[in-house]
Amino acid sequence: MSFSAELSVKDTVLIVSLEGKVLEESVLKQLLSDIDSQLGEVKGKLVINIEKLDYINSTGINFFIKALTKARVKNGDLILSGAQGSVLTIVQVSKMNEVFTMTETVEEALTIHNTKK
């Protein structure tokens, strides 16, 4: 399966939904640029929905860290939503679950963002 990403805004939060396998940095470079260009409008509030992500490697973890940095530069935060299966295992083994706020659903992530100033 290939990789795809969809960006949308809901409740003044940028939601990035990822699907497939994250393997190559070249694929993520443009996505990171697109995220950065929209973060100012939502005050850095970012949710990355990884519910339909089948696989990530260190490139994916690096992407999450770069996106988190971009969100925090805009005085916001990144929440990872929907991690499951091997993706959840990789996030836990790499201790990224201690770095990122994680939720089971996008709705939970939206609630967290919208309760912060």
What does this structure look like?
The protein has 117 residues and is an alpha/beta fold. The chain has 4 helices and 5 strands. The protein has helices at residues 25-39, 58-73, 85-93, 106-115; strands spanning 4-10, 13-22, 45-56, 77-81, 101-103. The chain has a 5-stranded mixed β-sheet, sandwiched between helices. The N and C termini lie far apart (39 Å). The mean pLDDT is 93.
Task: Profile the largest sheet.
Answer: 5 strands, mixed
> DSSP strand (E) fraction?
25-35%
Compute the gyration radius: what is it? 13 Å
**Computed structural class:** alpha/beta
Q: Average pLDDT value?
A: 93
**Spatial order of the strands forming the largest sheet:** 1-2-3-4-5
Helix content: 40-55%
Shape: globular
Number of strands: 5
Q: Regions with pLDDT < 50 over 5+ consecutive residues?
A: none
SSE string, helix = H, strand = E? EEHEHEHEH
Distance between the termini: 39 Å
Number of contiguous helices: 4
GO molecular function: anti-sigma factor antagonist activity
Protein name: STAS domain-containing protein
